[in-house]
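Hey team,

Filing this mostly as a record. A colleague (T.K.) asked me to run one chain through the structure pipeline before their review meeting, and I want the input and output archived in the tracker in case anyone asks later how it was produced. No errors, nothing strange. Just documentation.

Input sequence:
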Amino acid sequence: MGYPAGDGPGKPRLRFEQSLPMPTLHLRHLPGALALCLAGVLAHGAAAADVSQRFYDAALCQPPYTTASATALYEAAEKLAKPDMSMLTAAVYALPKPIGRDGFDSNEVIFAGSSVGVLVQGEQADALAARYKLQRESSTLLGTSTKGYSRALPDAQQPLPDAGTVSIVARESRGLPGKTLLACEFVSNADRDALKAYEKSVNP
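Output structure:
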């Protein structure tokens, strides 16, 4: 693969007639070994949540895509789940907990080619474009999308300006029914030139 890509039915409903104040738990009140164990559990949970949020940050090019940053995220994803390789050209990791921001929800991270991103629930390309100030793409070939938007990062944020362009992209495609790709993508100058040449040949 490429990378730099309550109560249920049949159960009695529990009812509490009176709400009792819950005691405040302080680690200093616990025996030493138990306090250390609980502190470790809390720290691990916070760290896992922080790692998960990093995936959404990365989809927004925070930080901009580089091979090093994508590799670090790939290694973090490997620790959380096994990849779904059914898309052949991409690896999708289901996160243990959903992540999201700005009203968009996701629980999947995707690595495909020279991009890293998340799969947002629903066909949200238009809404993502409005929220993150993306422009409609003139071509649907890049990413084989049925609807696509993108915005290149400012020149000062481009990690390899002589080699290619890093952009935030939002795309819908037939291969992702009911989902939208939100990703940070690097496209080399050579690949972009080849795409333009191909489009010119089929649309003279």
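Quick notes for T.K.: The mean pLDDT is 78. The CA atoms of residues 160 and 199 lie 25 Å apart.
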